[in-house]
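re: that chain from earlier
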Amino acid sequence: MNISFIGGGNMATALIGGLVSKGADAREFRVVEPLAAQHASLVERFAGIGIFGEATAGAVDGADLVVMAVKPQHMHEAALALAPHIAGVPVVLSIAAGTRIADLSRWLGGYPRIARAMPNTPALVGAGISGVFAPVEVNAAGRKLASRVLEAAGAVVWVDREEMLDAVTGVSGSGPAYVFYFLEGLEQAARELGFSTSDARKLAYTTFAGALKLAQASDLEPAILRAQVTSKGGTTERALTTMEADGVKAKFIAAVKAAAVRAHELGDEFGK
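^ sequence. v structure.
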């Protein structure tokens, strides 16, 4: 397996690290990264990795997969630089938010074998999830390799329409921020109820982690698990009644949908 990464930032590092932890040799990877400081970081962490300052033929020749891992606002420039060297690559995997396959293909001079994924930041600790789409031009081997790379940093959900990646962005791409927002509120409430900052954080984080672990271990849907914790006339019922009166769930659902709409808008903007 030989994989070239265009961009050597956090997400590329997470994917390479995940693959190496699963037995891949660092010498199987090449990274195009213009920043000298990031060069040094990659070489220090992955002995034998190939580092290139720009997209040249040598950066991708013989690659089984090229991963486009640059920021969306830099994707156009990166793709144009890569275009003269990409024809012989079996498949390209884009993990840049908002950049649509048709636009990337155009920038790559009509290259058609592109899979597109939307990962999220827990990939940095091997606990991410990626939505991924590939058109018919990407064969089974290409899909399998794309899955292997993404699964090195977490779970994978395939979607059958590219536009569903906007929904993935709204749900799981932005999702970690929703969790952190909830943790902020739970921690602040604990502090205002008299706990120290360290104890408030411990209560909030452990409660969230434990509840998630319980949910993942159960076959029951969240609504039933919630009901099991909610005694009639009790403390949990009082809290949930307050939330429902303020429309918390409805507003949260609307917020996730708004994020998905914004993802579509960004696709329009980045594709110009």
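The chain has two domains: 3-163, 175-266.
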